[in-house]
């Protein structure tokens, strides 16, 4: 993607990450997804008269955990506020959120991707807040239904600095952030189901101009691809307006993925006045060093650290190590393969990495599956790698075995056995096959011996064909050279 | 029988001299006879009350009685009850039956108290006379042309009219103490956070506090024993061991330092009230307490501070009454905006609307710093000033209300009405405990109350001082006879 080179984009992202707590942030109701409407509610989350909020410690710990992972400052005293507005799916008429004193400030995230050079993006703040309910219009005649199951589910709002200047950087940032929250197991990172939502603030300015342009906020971005497309579109729209001598109106815009356009939702003039004030039903949230230390002790190895370890411990390329550490499950899968190969008496982390990053991920991508849903288990992939390394099958045959494993989920040995794919390493059998080929192609043998050495490949191909690809390539090479030379 | 104090009634129930059914019936008879004029109760459930009384008698007979078992009590209609509507005296909640009990309601049920019904209040507790109630004002049994005070005026009228032995109230700016003062009762506002707010319909969350309304300080101690608790459902509830408050009533105030602040005896104070308070001061001196002059100049900011913070919180707390989920909904709304507008216009009364608008204004962007933030700073100053004062004195004695009970319609200017709470509001802003105790009558035969203010969590000193005074005086024993 590219825009008029005279301009540059200034992009900041606000991510709402739904925290993976068992219960809601201010009551004991379950947060499980997909239950029938209004079955996971109580007087507290449905805002009945007389109710009071009680803060869920698990949510606090998850926010602290995320704060530590992005090297942010965790506030020893943070504060909840009320954000007041009327909406049918906001039962109490206000949302409890953190305003002046959020739990985390000043963090940072290192981004890099295929086309994105390494860059640090600042995190302004992380604050906790409650999710609202859902209005249902579909299938309702003459009104609207409200489902409050999601009301009170804890969210973390992660606000970045306007540090990104291309849609690719925004995409890389989201991928990285999603990978971090998944590593921490504080959010499932699912954008389609709305548990990882993003709003983008976009403005443009002439390159070198120190002054920020007027920004617009983009909403309804439900995939990383859409975030990138919407930013691009929005920047182009701004540049077109500026080039025609117009000026940008600060507003909130909706991205329509079907039409691939952004359109005005509300302008600054009709923006809400949220009348924030400190939530009187909740005291200051005071943390202890002890609590922070306890959370710190539960921090897993994070993607950056893991990538470095993969590079040094397994001798992987920066790129392979990055791919393998994009998710905790993927890195766990990879490490299991490496360990099981070792247990099988072999050792080759690089081949393992190739099979995972190239073959497996390609097939998973094609079927839109996550590593957790891989039909090929790490144990089975390791068994197959062992069979390659111990010369039972060739690399080429392995592709066939692998495809079959992916389809059936079976053990590689069973497949090799059933399909008779075992490599022929027996020199007698290979010799017999060579003799047969040479006898059938006497003309080519003459030509080879007359100096046309290119024909060597032809003979290899013929023998492979005759052995259905099972001849051990090294052995075949050696024997064929002997025979042709003889 | 229905004129008994809580202590007397409990003793007679324990010795089976009377039964709870008899006592409850006596209260119900009085209600049947006089509630049509006094209008203390919004809801009475005689059947449930008698059933509860029967259960209490059985409990006492089985030897399982507690001090409150079988005592007829009235709940301010702001405490959630699952078996009786909770209206807040608003059209908005006219038919609202909550799905859960307030924590205090639960405690009192468990203690065996018999709930007679729910008492009238100013709509959503906003007012000082019960005149803002959707169900009409309650009348002061001492003079039915006058208010019983507010907002817990239904509770004070119920006890003063001998319809209940005791009652619960809530106090946001003086709503327990002022009506207690105007009807010759003892009314205690505990330290903020002492009693759970869970299940009390919120007016101004950072100021609301539940407390007992009774005939004597001893009764207040008995009721407080059951009302005070740490409640994990209320994050602002204080985790502090609750003593047996009746144990504090030693009758001894020797050596106690009582602060007298000149700021509480200024121009607005009625002469007869002033004289009664001064006599009470002398009585304390005679009992061995020491009067210490103190100064609380920031008290002057109390009214403006309160009328910024409490409407701000109320504007937010009352946003849930939008016609969507429960309570009043307008007829045939055109769309969601129409539903909001008309449900709220038709469901709320003028005073509630006034405060919602005031609160919306002081919180709106551009005004927050000028009003709300300043008010919070003033609140801090007021609290600090009290803290400094309590380094010199053990409690502070002031009038409760600048006047005795006033006539209906007498204070038609809202600001005039707001000034009725001038001596009580500071206590809420600072989160301190305060008690109002009967200390005389004016020439019209209307009761006068004095207020004692204590250190945080020191309800014991307040109750001890109030009880010691009541051992020396008879004001609290005067009863109205409605005939
Ligand atoms: Zn709930």
TrEMBL record, chain A:
Keywords: ATP-binding, Ligase, Nucleotide-binding, Protein biosynthesis, Transferase. It is an enzyme of class 6 (ligase). Residues 332-484 form the Asn/Gln amidotransferase domain. Belongs to the GatB/GatE family. GatB subfamily. NCBIfam families: gatB (TIGR00133), PRK05477.1-2 (NF004012), PRK05477.1-4 (NF004014), PRK05477.1-5 (NF004015). Heterotrimer of A, B and C subunits. This is Aspartyl/glutamyl-tRNA(Asn/Gln) amidotransferase subunit B. The lineage of its organism: Bacteria, Pseudomonadati, Pseudomonadota, Magnetococcia, Magnetococcales.
């Amino acid at each position: 993607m590219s825009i008029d080179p005279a301009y540059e984009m200034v992009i900041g992202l606000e991510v709402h990450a739904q925290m993976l707590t068992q219960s809601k942030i201010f009551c004991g109701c379950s947060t499980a997804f997909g239950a029938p409407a209004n079955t996971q509610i109580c007087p507290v989350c449905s805002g009945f008269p007389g109710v009071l909020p009680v803060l869920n410690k698990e949510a606090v710990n998850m926010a602290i955990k995320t704060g530590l992972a992005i090297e942010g400052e965790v506030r020893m005293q943070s504060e909840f506020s009320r954000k007041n507005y009327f909406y049918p799916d906001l039962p109490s008429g206000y949302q409890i959120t953190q305003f002046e004193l959020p739990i985390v400030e000043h963090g940072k995230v290192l981004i890099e991707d295929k086309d994105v050079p390494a860059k640090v993006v600042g995190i302004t703040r992380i604050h906790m807040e409650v999710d609202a309910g859902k209005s249902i219009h579909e299938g309702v005649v003459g009104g609207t239904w409200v489902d409050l199951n999601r009301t009170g589910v804890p969210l973390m709002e992660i606000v970045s600095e306007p540090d990104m200047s291309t849609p690719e950087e925004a995409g890389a940032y989201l991928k990285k952030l999603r990978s971090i929250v998944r590593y921490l197991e504080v959010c499932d990172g699912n954008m389609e189901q709305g548990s990882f939502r993003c709003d983008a603030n976009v403005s443009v300015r002439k390159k070198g101009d120190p002054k920020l342009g007027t920004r617009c906020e983009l909403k309804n971005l439900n995939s990383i691809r859409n975030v990138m497309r919407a930013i691009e579109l929005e920047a182009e729209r701004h540049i077109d307006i500026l080039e025609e001598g117009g000026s940008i109106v600060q507003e909130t815009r909706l991205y329509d993925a079907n039409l691939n356009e952004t359109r005005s939702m509300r302008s600054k003039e009709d923006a809400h006045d949220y009348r924030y004030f400190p939530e009187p039903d909740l005291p200051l949230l005071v943390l202890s060093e002890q609590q922070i230390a306890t959370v710190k002790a539960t921090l897993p190895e994070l993607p950056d650290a893991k990538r470095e370890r993969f590079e040094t411990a397994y001798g992987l390329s920066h790129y392979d190590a990055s791919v393998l550490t994009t998710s905790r499950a993927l890195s766990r899968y990879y490490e299991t393969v490496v360990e099981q190969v070792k247990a099988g008496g072999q050792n080759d982390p690089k081949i393992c990495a190739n099979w995972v990053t190239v073959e497996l991920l390609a097939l998973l991508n094609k079927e839109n599956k996550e590593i957790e849903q891989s039909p090929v288990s790490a144990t089975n992939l390791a068994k197959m790698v062992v069979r390659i390394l111990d010369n039972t099958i060739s690399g080429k045959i392995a592709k066939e075995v692998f495809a079959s494993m992916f389809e059936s989920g079976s053990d590689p040995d069973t497949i090799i056995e059933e399909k008779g794919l075992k490599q022929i390493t027996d020199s007698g059998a290979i010799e017999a096959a060579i003799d047969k080929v040479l006898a059938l192609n006497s003309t080519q043998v003459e030509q080879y011996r007359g100096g046309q050495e290119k024909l060597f490949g032809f003979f290899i191909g013929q023998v492979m064909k005759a052995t259905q690809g099972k001849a051990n390539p090294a052995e075949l090479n050696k024997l064929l050279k002997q025979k042709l030379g003889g | 029988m229905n004129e008994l104090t809580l202590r007397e009634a409990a003793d007679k129930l324990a010795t089976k001299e009377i039964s709870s059914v008899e006592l409850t019936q006596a209260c119900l008879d009085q209600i049947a006879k006089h509630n049509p004029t006094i209008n203390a109760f919004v809801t009475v459930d005689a059947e449930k009350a008698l059933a509860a009384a029967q259960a209490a008698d059985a409990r006492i007979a089985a030897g399982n009685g507690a001090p409150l078992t079988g005592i007829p009590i009235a709940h301010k209609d702001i405490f959630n009850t699952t078996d009786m509507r909770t209206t807040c005296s608003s059209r908005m909640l006219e038919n609202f039956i909550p799905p859960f009990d307030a924590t205090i309601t639960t405690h009192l049920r468990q203690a065996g108290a018999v709930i007679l019904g729910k008492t009238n209040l100013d709509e959503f507790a906003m007012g000082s006379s019960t005149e803002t109630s959707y169900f009409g004002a309650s009348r002061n049994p001492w003079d039915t042309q006058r208010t019983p005070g507010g907002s817990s005026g239904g509770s004070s009228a119920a006890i003063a009219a001998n319809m209940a032995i005791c009652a619960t109230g809530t106090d946001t700016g003086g709503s327990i103490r002022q009506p207690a003062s105007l009807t010759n009762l003892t009314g205690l506002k505990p330290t903020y956070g002492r009693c759970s707010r869970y299940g009390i319909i919120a007016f101004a969350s950072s100021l609301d506090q539940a407390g007992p309304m009774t005939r004597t300080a001893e009764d207040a101690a008995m009721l407080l024993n059951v009302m005070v608790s740490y409640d994990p459902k209320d994050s602002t509830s204080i985790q502090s061991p609750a003593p047996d408050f009746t144990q504090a009533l030693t009758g001894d105030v020797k050596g106690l330092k009582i602060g007298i602040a000149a700021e509480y005896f200024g121009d607005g104070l009625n002469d007869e009230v002033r004289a009664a308070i001064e006599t009470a001061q002398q009585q304390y001196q005679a009992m061995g307490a020491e009067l210490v002059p103190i100064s609380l100049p920031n008290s002057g900011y109390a009214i403006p501070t309160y009328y910024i913070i409490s409407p701000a919180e109320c504007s937010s707390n009352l946003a849930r009454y939008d016609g969507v989920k429960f309570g009043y909904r307008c007829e045939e709304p055109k769309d969601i905006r129409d539903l909001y507008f008309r449900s709220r216009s038709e469901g709320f009364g003028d005073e509630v609307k006034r405060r919602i608008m005031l609160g919306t204004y002081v919180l709106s962007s551009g005004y927050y710093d000028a009003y709300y933030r300043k008010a919070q700073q003033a609140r801090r100053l007021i609290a600090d000033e009290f803290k400094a004062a309590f380094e010199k004195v053990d409690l502070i004695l002031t009038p409760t209300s600048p006047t005795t009970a006033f006539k209906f319609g007498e204070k038609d200017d809202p600001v005039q009405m707001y000034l009725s709470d001038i001596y009580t509001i500071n206590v809420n802003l600072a989160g301190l405990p305060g008690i109002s105790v009967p200390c005389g009558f004016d020439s019209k035969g209307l009761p006068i109350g004095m207020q004692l203010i204590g250190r945080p969590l020191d309800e014991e000193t307040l109750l001890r001082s109030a009880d010691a005074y009541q051992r020396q005086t008879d004001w609290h024993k005067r009863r109205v006879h409605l005939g």
